[in-house]
Amino acid sequence: MRWRWGLGIPTISVALLVVAFVIGSPLYIKLKSGGSPLVRLAQVIVAAFKKRNAQLPKDLCYENGELDASISLHGKLLHTGQLR
């Protein structure tokens, strides 16, 4: 019985999402592809190669004193080294 619930709920969810996608697909803006995706990929690889030795700026965070007042101290955001 648990297997039926465990497999039935995701199956019904996916079926509903497929129906929503099919119904909503006429609302999407369809553009004709322009050029090869391999050219774009090559451009990204070349740009990454050219910038491989670029120095990162000291402060990568965007700071706004008014918007960040509730989470800042003396106008500067409180940074953490936890995610480095």
Automatic annotation (TrEMBL):
Molecular-function annotations in GO: transmembrane transporter activity
TM helices/strands, residue ranges: 7-29
GO CC entries: membrane
Statement: the UniProt record of this protein carries the keyword Transmembrane: yes
Record's subcellular location: Membrane
Topology with respect to the bilayer: Multi-pass membrane protein
Domain of life: Eukaryota
Key words of the record: Membrane, Transmembrane, Transmembrane helix
PANTHER family, per database record: OLIGOPEPTIDE TRANSPORTER-RELATED (PTHR11654)
Family recorded in the similarity comment: Belongs to the major facilitator superfamily. Proton-dependent oligopeptide transporter (POT/PTR) (TC 2.A.17) family.
Protein name: Uncharacterized protein
